[in-house]
Every structure is written in C-alpha cells, then in structure tokens.
Amino acid sequence: MTAAVESVQTPNAARLPAGVVTGERYRTLVAACKSGGYALPAVNVTGTNSVNAVLEAAATAKADVVIQLSNGGARFFAGEGMKDEGTARALGAVAAARHVHLLAQHYGVCVVLHTDHANKKLVPWVERMLDFSEEEHNRTGKPLFSSHMLDLSEEPLEENLAICARILKRMAPMGMSLEIELGVTGGEEDGIGAEHDGADNAKLYTQPEDVAQAFKTLSMIGHFSVAASFGNVHGVYAPGNVKLRPEILKKSQDLVQAQFKTPAKPLNLVFHGGSGSEKDKISEAVSYGVFKMNIDTDTQFAFAQGVGKFVLENPKAFQHQIDPVDGKPYKKLYDPRKWLRLGEKSVVERLQEAFTDLGSKGKSLAG
Ligand SMILES: [Zn+2]
Q1: Is the pTM value of this prediction over 0.85?
Q2: What is the 117 CA–ligand 1 centroid distance (Å)?
Q3: Nearest 5°: CA angle at 20, between 28 and 118?
Q4: 294: CA distance to ligand 1 center in Å?
Q5: Catalytic amino acids?
C-alpha cells in the first residue's frame, strides 16, 4: 500500500523569456495574473523618457508591465511637428514599439505592448498599425504589438461587437489580443471621452448581459479582454465623485460562467481610470479577474512633480546660461538630462506603489 501523497503545485510555475510578449506568451502572462490574483499596471507613455521610466520601474519591482500608447501619445512620440497627423499616430506607435522591442529584454522583465482607446473614427489608426504587425509577423513570426484596444462604447452594442469581430479576425492569426469597452468610462481620456462628463449614471455601469453577448460573439474568434465600467473614471477628481462598484465585474464573470459553462473567471478584465482609486476597491476588482489596470494621470503628475520641484529650486538656471550677478555657469542644471531624469525617477517611484497595490511586485515571469 502506498500512502497517498498530495502533490504540491507551485502557482505560476511558468517562466517566459524577458522582453515583449505576444501570442501564447501573452496568454500565459494574462492567465498567470488571474490565477495568481494580481494585475499589471498599464502605463501610458509619450516618449522615450516615459518608456524608459516604466521599464526601469518594472525592473526595480521585478514585475511585468503593460506599456501602452494613446493615439495622442503615439502622435507625440513621432513629433507634433509632423504635418500628417494620421501618419504621425501610426508611425509614432510603431517607433515606440520598436524602441521597446529593442530594450525590454535588457531590463529583465516581460512587457505587454498595447494601444489605448480607439473610437470609431480611429479604427483606421488600428488598421494601419495592423499593417505593420502583419509585415513583422511575415518576417519574424511575431506581431509588433501584443494587443490593441477598440473603444466603440458610444456605438450601439451590435455595431460595437460587429466591428470588434471584424478586427479580431484579422488579429487572431497573429496571436494578438483585442481589448474592447462595454459601458462608458467617465472623465477625460486624451480629449476623447470628455463628452462623457455628463453621461447618465446607468451608462457608467456595464450590464453583465452585454458582457455575455460580447463573450458569445468574440470568444470563438480569438483572445480578447473587456474594459468594463463599474463607476471608474479617467482622471483624478475630488473625493466622493466616484462610486466604484467592483461587484459588477463579479456579476459579469458569474453570468458568463453559468451561461457558457466555462471555468471560473472566464473573462479577462481591464480596469480603466486606475489613478486616484481607493486601494481596497482595486484589490476587490483584481480578485474578480482584472489583470490590467490603466494608470496615466498619476504618472503624468509624478513626472511633472519631479521636474517642477527642480525648476522651482533652481529658477535662475532656466532663465540665464550664466548668472547675471556672479557669472556662475548653469550648464549642469539646464542640461535636459538633469531635469528629465528627475521626472523619470519620480515616475519609477510612483509606479512602485502601483505594483504593490496590484500585487504584482516580485512576480515577473521573466527568467
Ligand atoms: Zn481608458
């Protein structure tokens, strides 16, 4: 008779090579977040300073991370002086992606490359980026981006899902994932969504039936995630303005699980408007299958604080090359590397808090 030995399984035993994850590796990372009960911060970037700060922050925290660009961030990456805005939006995103592909593995963490909100008029932006991913995939077997977002929450549900299905059909053969939005995230995102300030309250909470409809339409096509609205808003406002109701996420998971007879937490959920959110609501949302929380406003403020403090402490160095009274040269102070670095360091520090809040510190799958 042999005694029954209970096998002890290490959770998240999967290891991945450091660098940008796409396809099967992306899906492994998302699954590890959900089974491990943690989430990754998804940080909006606008240039190499913010990209490098996010990579440094992830390396410091020994955590994996999502680097994402809004269409405005992508345009800024290409340079606002570029005349054709549409081209700047596409090429800026591609330039940022190539920068991250080249450097990420040297920071020793896994990085998801993603683009943020694209409403109906920005669908062609996503399609232009897909042209680049297809070219990359033909050459290397991998797409340029891990995932893209389509935010068609302003359109009727049927149209939202029909366009998402069309785009996901193009992404799935490359192993790419699509983030969709159901319900309306309040506040302002890159100028888009500012009109949501007056959105009626019901729209700020996603209906679980809509999520089930999305699951039915998209799960047969490819990998997707859902930015569901549970009272979250973009930006940081006075306390009391936001009433987060993460239980809406649980209701969606439970409905889909029951209706489609799936394992627990079948949905990959995304938390938009993470800046300024209450910590216990963040933990609760993560426990319901949120694997990604967007953070932009708080890291923007962190960068500005790092730079602003230095400028306020050294005002003369930003007005004179040489001190008009004692002739002291200020070159070492106005050198952009001096003050941009302080912005980066401030972002690195702020993101440590985000990794801790989301439970992802020390959990990188890289190695
Ligand atoms: Zn958002």
Answers
A1: yes
A2: 6
A3: 90
A4: 7
A5: 116
